[in-house]
UniProtKB/TrEMBL annotation:
It comes from Sphagnurus paluster. This is Protein kinase domain-containing protein. It comes from the Eukaryota. Residues 1-14 have a biased composition (Polar residues). Residues 1-355 form the Protein kinase domain. Residues 1-27 are annotated as: Disordered. GO terms for molecular function: ATP binding; protein kinase activity.
Amino acid sequence: MAPEPLQSTENSQIPRKISPLVSTTSNRPGLRPHDLVVELRQLYQFQTVLRKSEEAWRNRYSFLLSKVTHETRIAKYFSQPGILEDPRNHCVRILDSFRDPILPKVEFLVMPSLRRYADPEFGTVGEVVDFVTQLIEGMDFMHSHHIAHGYIFKRSIILVATNYRMNSDLTTQNIMMDARPIIPSGWHFVAHNREPDGFTSISPLARIDHPVRYIIIDFDCSIEADSKNPPLILGFGGRDGDPPEYQTRKPYDPFKIDVFTLGNVFYKDLYMKYEGLDFLPTIIDYMKTVDFRERPTADQVMHHWINVRGHIDVNRARWRLQKRRGTIAERIIFDTMAFALEGMNRVKRMIAGET
């Protein structure tokens, strides 16, 4: 029996090009049918891109299939009025939700379409500074509401994109970004290096000139704590196996796990990848303090980072990042170009009367 088409909600509409059993690949060489066709059963494997009926195609949305759990409740909590508007809130926004008519324990969550935070890669020192600031700010915000993410990892931080999986802790798996400022034309929901037509290559703009917002996703392993009695728990594991607490059988603080794993993101994905980030070791070492009892809180990390950031020369903002494998000649050429570009921008600001 053929799967029933998923019904549109009041605010969302499924485009014909990805409606069930509709193929539009016959005149588009290089695209496979499943690039444009999504059956209901495939929603367990792929995300479907939605659009609001009154908005243009490039203002895309995605929805995620999820069981009705505390994860959906936490995600909705951070999307409610009064909390959603807080500029420190970097949790993924839930735009809409609806239950499966046949499986009441299954819920569809509608959210902005996000992109992995490192796709495209960072280009300048200033972009890294902004990334670190936003992520520490987002962690501090969650903790101020007595919720530990439990899995801040690479994929939990996102530039707003599609095809991400629900995992759990402040690692790279749970970090995304809203990439619309740098990819205003949008991108194909399967071939992320292509525009929505599936053929044209995307041409990302520089984040230093078009700032993006980083987003934390995946709350399936998040912990809600009593504001007066922060919990000490056991068995709270995530993708990052480095926290020393995981090597013991003693209770530990899940909020301090967030601090450590986010510090590990900064270490592995930034400091070990790029040169010229000499300001990072101090914050990384602080966040990765071995004894979790001595490890700082998110609020303390935020204050420490603000102090570190205040000592970074603003003229370094446009310095081009060099991967550690880059040659000395390449570094000299690109840093000279970056210095010249920064000089031009300073002259423009002076002419415009800006400081």
